[in-house]
Amino acid sequence: MTYPETITETHPNLYKIDYNLNKLVQKIELLNYINPINIEQEKRNFFASKYNTIPNFKYRKIDFDAHKLQQELFSQDIDSIKDEEARNFYRDVIYDYSGLIQCIETIGKGKKFYYNALKSFGTPRQKDVENAQFILHFKDEEYDQEMFPVFSAEEASDYFVEFTKKYDFDLNIKLSTKITAAAMVQNNTQRLILKKNHRYSANQLKVLANHEIGVHLVTTFNGLKQSLKIFHNGFPNNVKTQEGLAVFSEYMSDCLTLYRLKELSYRVLAADSLHKGFNFCDTFDLLHNQYKLNREEAYNISLRAHRGGGLTKDYKYLTGLKRIYNYYKDDGNLDLLLAGKVSIKYRKMVKRWQKEGLSQEITYRNEAFTKNNNSNKTIDFILQNLK
Q1: Could you give the maximum distance between any two Cα atoms of the chain, in Å?
Q2: 55: Cβ–Cβ under 8 A, 6 or more apart, which residues?
Q3: N or C, fewer C-beta in 10 Å, the chain?
């Protein structure tokens, strides 16, 4: 493999280590392993038990040698990277991926997984919980026609294909019964996966198009265009930035509703319930009986929080949204954060890399970020007043 001569002179071994890491981390995508393969069966059992039997979720087996992969990660000669900032960055990369490997190899092993997830994703702070409770105090909006779930997964697929025509990347769609979300992007295959047995509302189609395609697929394909593979594989702790951008895209395209913000708030409370030692039934009871959330939604949010043994990741959607909202108000340009699976923490480094030719300008932009089309004054008030 050959590299630009000027780059190898100023950054010796950087491309080599990036290339080596790219070969190693191909299978480290947590979402490929964390979603149970028996979701529907366990939901039927749980409802039949009158919400008293903790679901017994099963997971796909990992198809790599976790111990060997850890050894290969830590055998990289990071100290050979002369630039201090880049050296520290790639050290962070190795620790981050090592943590994700530990998460993957302990899926389904209760507290072992939960403690590994805590290291990788953290847990909601008090202000995050207070933000969620603040949102939940608002009176529900009227349920208009756009909110009724009437579209099948096949019809949703057609909608997303049409939406993607504004880009020149191919949309690869797969239907599945083994995902917890209505839709998700699989980064390593550049695929959009839709929940096969889900019914989508007109608003949800718009939300998912702007969230999954406008951000997650845009950053996937922008990452593939970069010469450094880490832009595609993912910066350390990029979830907060990526999910914040994705929900902010919903806001800017005028499809972020109070209903959606409340859904993200319930996810914060569910993640916080893990910290308090709640089991699946306890979290479901909190959402369904105390907060009066319907049983389907309460089950799904409880599942997202308890999968694997306790995954706190979901609180980052709301905290990420506030972070990006503030960033946009200060800067007004989100292009740097769309360069790949980037973390906001490293934005200055990405800017410097672009000047030095280590990183390229983005190929794909999210149209929602060109103009704020939000018309919901309640949403504006909430975002302005989150801590």
Answers
A1: 67
A2: 36, 42, 43, 45, 46, 280, 303, 306
A3: N
Element (H, E) at 21: helix 14-24
- The pLDDT value recorded for residue 31 is 86
Say whether pLDDT at 263 is over 70.
yes
User: If DSSP codes are grouped into helix, strand and coil, which group holds residue 191?
Assistant: strand
What does the DSSP assignment read for 203-232? HHHHHHIIIIIIIIIHHHHHHHHSSSTHHH
CB-based contact 381:274 (threshold 8 Å): no
Cα(270)–Cα(263) distance, integer angstroms: 11
Q: Which two tokens stand for residue 51?
A: 């919400």
- Per-residue tokens: 132: 């969620």
Q: Which residues of 207-234 are buried (b: 16+ CB within 10 A; e: fewer)?
A: bbbbbbbbbbbbbbbbbeebebbbbbbb
DSSP, residue by residue, 117-135: HHHHH----HHHHHHHHHH
For 348-368, the pLDDT digits (tens) are 999 999 999 999 999 999 999
- Residue 247 to residue 249: CA distance in whole angstroms: 5
